[in-house]
Design a protein that fits this description.
The protein is an alpha/beta fold. Helices cover 37% and strands 26% of the residues. The protein contains 10 helices and 10 strands. The strands form 2 sheets. A 6-stranded mixed beta sheet has the order 6-7-8-3-9-10, sandwiched between helices. It has a 4-stranded antiparallel beta sheet with strand order 2-1-4-5, with helices on one face. A hairpin with a 2-residue loop joins β4 (57-60) and β5. α3 packs parallel to α6. It is globular. The chain starts with a strand and ends with a helix. The structure holds adenosine-5'-triphosphate.
């Protein structure tokens, strides 16, 4: 579904992403793990067209998307839940969800919203509440629901567990598992390697802009180098 082939991304003179390649197949959860500053967000922003690679290619559903503008990618089936959620704080839950459907025909909004509410009953209870008054976990659910309103083929999640209490992290990962079981393909960027690798079919480890290891999630969880660097022993 997604093939990232040999990308190199720079911020001015800083070479942030170095010869990175990976792929996400239909129906998989794939995770990119790595420490602060390893290049995880830069990689996601390059896929979603906010940054550009100087080399290589990015293919999505068989099409080179390397020069497609970000707003067009949503219509192609690529949705991103950004780091820090970025929900529209002054708008209600329902209005935020409607914003996620801006590329969709009007007739799909109501049925999609019902699907999102079935996945996130908490959002349904709070549909008229202003998003700025939701808890961090609820805002994360709203950001995920908003992305799902565009009927994505691939859902990219940037650090969904960031800043959440452990119990909420568990809930968010349960939802990720449910979305996967319902057939959504997911690219998950996480600093919480333990949680990410335990739900992922496959994972890639990023270190200072390079992929240094890859394999099935369970294998990486058991890998001695991964344990030492990312799993606290
Ligand atoms: P984090 O979890 O902290 O967000 P990350 O793995 O997502 O980390 P990136 O944010 O992709 O890492 O950063 C990769 C590298 O690029 C880092 O060295 C970072 O300092 C640098 N970088 C990121 N954004 C910019 C920017 N706007 N200008 C210059 N350098 C940047």
């Amino acid at each position: 579904m997604l093939k990232v082939n040999n990308i190199n991304v720079y911020y001015g003179a800083i070479h942030a992403i170095k010869d990175v390649s990976f792929e996400v197949n239909d129906g998989e959860i794939v995770t990119l793990i790595g420490a602060n500053g390893a290049g995880k967000s830069t990689t996601l922003q390059t896929i979603s067209g906010l940054l550009r690679s100087r080399t290589g290619s990015i293919e999505f559903m068989g099409k080179d998307i390397g020069s497609v503008p970000p707003d067009k990618l949503v219509a192609h089936g690529l949705a991103q839940v950004p780091e820090g959620r970025r929900v529209f704080l002054q708008m209600t839950v329902e209005e935020n969800l409607e914003m996620g459907a801006f590329t969709q025909p009007a007739s799909t909004i109501a049925p999609n919203m019902e699907k999102v509410y079935a996945q996130f009953p908490r959002l349904k209870e709070r549909r008229r509440q202003v998003a700025g008054t939701l808890s961090g976990g609820e805002q994360q659910m709203l950001a995920m629901g908003r992305a799902l309103m565009s009927n994505p083929k691939l859902l990219m999640l940037d650090e969904p567990s960031m800043g959440l209490a452990p119990i909420l992290v568990e809930q968010i990962f349960d939802i990720i598992k449910q979305l996967h079981q319902a057939g959504t393909t997911i690219l998950l960027v996480e600093q919480n390697a333990q949680m990410a690798l335990s739900v992922a079919d496959r994972g890639y480890v990023l270190e200072t802009g390079r992929v240094t290891l890859s394999g099935p999630g369970k294998e990486l969880l058991a890998d001695e180098a991964v344990k030492k660097a990312y799993l606290g022993g």
